């Protein structure tokens, strides 16, 4: 059991896979912080506009019983986030295991004694699969 766990995601069009990851993470730590990727961060690294605003996505996460704290974040850099929140474990879906970015994250967090824990990913569900692209659905400001 970890003292403070951390997980992070977009959580756009919140679905059962999101809930499974968050609840599984919460079972493995005394307190859980969930980072919600800001709209600008999502645009930057996914080149997508979120369907649900960052404030609304964070409000959904804040209202989950298993979440102790929810923060809107502007970075994917887990060392930078560790320096702010001092978690001792990061939780991520096992569909990311072996990914170059997460291998590097494991190496980056090791000197701080932070474990990267891969949790079972819910198959056949993702916001990307749920998202229907409709031309001009979202106009840029």
Protein described:
The protein has about 140 residues and is an alpha/beta fold. It has helices at about 15-25, 40-45, 55-60, 80-85, 100-110, 125-130, and strands at about 1-10, 30-35, 70-75, 90-95, 115-120. A 5-stranded parallel sheet has the order 3-2-1-4-5, sandwiched between helices. It starts with a strand and ends in an 11-residue tail after the last helix. The model has no long low-confidence stretch (mean pLDDT about 90).
Distance between the termini: 45 Å
Supply the number of helical segments. Answer: 6
Any idea what the shape is? globular
Strand order of the largest sheet: 3-2-1-4-5
What would the average pLDDT be, to the nearest integer? 91
Count the E strands. Answer: 5
- SSE class: alpha/beta
Largest sheet: 5 strands, parallel
SSE succession: EHEHHEHEHEH
- The helical percent reads 25-40%
Indicate the radius of gyration in whole angstroms. Answer: 15 Å
The proportion of strand residues reads 15-25%
Unreliable residue runs: none
Task: Summarize, please.
The chain is of the alpha/beta class.
Layout: helices, strands, pairs:
Elements: E1 2-9, H1 16-27, E2 29-37, H2 39-46, H3 54-62, E3 69-73, H4 78-85, E4 89-93, H5 100-109, E5 115-119, H6 127-130
Parallel strand pairs: 1-2, 1-4, 2-3, 4-5
């Amino acid at each position: 059991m970890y003292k403070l766990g951390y997980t992070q995601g977009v959580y756009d069009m919140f679905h059962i896979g999101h809930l499974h990851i968050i609840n599984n993470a919460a079972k493995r730590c005394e307190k859980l912080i969930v980072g919600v990727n800001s709209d600008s961060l999502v645009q930057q690294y996914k080149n997508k506009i979120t369907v649900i605003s960052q404030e609304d996505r964070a409000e959904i996460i804040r209202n989950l019983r298993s979440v102790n704290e929810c923060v809107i974040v502007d970075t994917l850099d887990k060392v930078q986030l560790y320096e702010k929140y001092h978690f001792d474990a990061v939780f991520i879906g096992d569909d990311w295991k072996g990914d170059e970015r997460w291998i590097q994250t494991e190496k980056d967090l090791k000197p701080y004694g932070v474990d990267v824990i891969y949790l079972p990913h819910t198959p056949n569900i993702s916001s990307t699969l749920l998202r229907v692209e409709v031309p001009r659905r979202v106009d840029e400001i």
